[in-house]
Specification:
Blueprint lengths: L7 H4 L2 E4 L10 E5 L12 H10 L9 E5 L8 H10 L5 E4 L2 H14 L10 E4 L9 H11 L5 E6 L2 E7 L2
Parallel strand pairs: 1-5, 2-3, 3-4, 5-6
Antiparallel strand pairs: 6-7
Helix pairs in contact: 4-5
């Protein structure tokens, strides 16, 4: 069988990791308190508490929620705490924007990974994905596995960029 096609990538011992595979399903929601401010500038406690009381909090059940205020206003910390206390049925709640939310979601996922599962392996971290994987996730995952792996590359098996190689 002289003309047999050999898949050298499959035989190379490289492990390809697609961070998109870690991406949890679920809607991401930005909860902006700006509309609840008087003239979108001032938080009036009585009015704010009335909004809290009358808002439909059930709509956030099992969703990932980022709490923010996009108005250029001084918001007391307790206001964010009050909103967070009402979001108890959400999957995850963070203070910040949707980018911060994605970063925190991946951070939580990586906390559950045992780096020893990759000990002495040659790893390719896949670069292209269909879902929004933040750059911070690539950095965090690299830092997680770097102490135990032989090498880390970025890209596709046919075209990788070397990132790390143990000496």
């Amino acid at each position: 069988m002289e003309n047999e096609i050999v898949n050298k990538v499959a035989e190379s011992g490289l492990i390809t990791i697609d961070l998109e595979d870690f991406y949890p399903e679920g809607e991401r929601v930005l909860f902006d308190i700006k509309p609840w401010l008087f003239q979108e500038l001032i938080l009036k406690e009585k009015d704010f508490r009335e909004h809290i009381k009358n808002h439909d909090w059930a709509q956030y059940e099992n969703k990932f929620v980022a709490i923010t205020c996009t108005a250029d206003a001084i918001i007391p910390t307790w206001a964010y705490m009050l909103v967070a206390s009402q979001l108890s049925s959400a999957k995850k709640i963070v203070f910040g924007d949707l980018q911060k939310l994605e970063e925190e979601i991946f951070h939580d996922i990586f906390q559950k990974i045992n780096p020893d599962d990759y000990r002495d392996q040659r790893i390719i971290i896949k670069g292209c994905s269909n879902k929004e994987v933040p750059a911070s996730a690539y950095v965090e995952f690299t830092n997680l596995i770097r102490p135990v792996v032989k090498s880390i590359m970025y890209g596709e098996a046919c075209s990788t960029v070397p990132v790390f190689k143990r000496k």
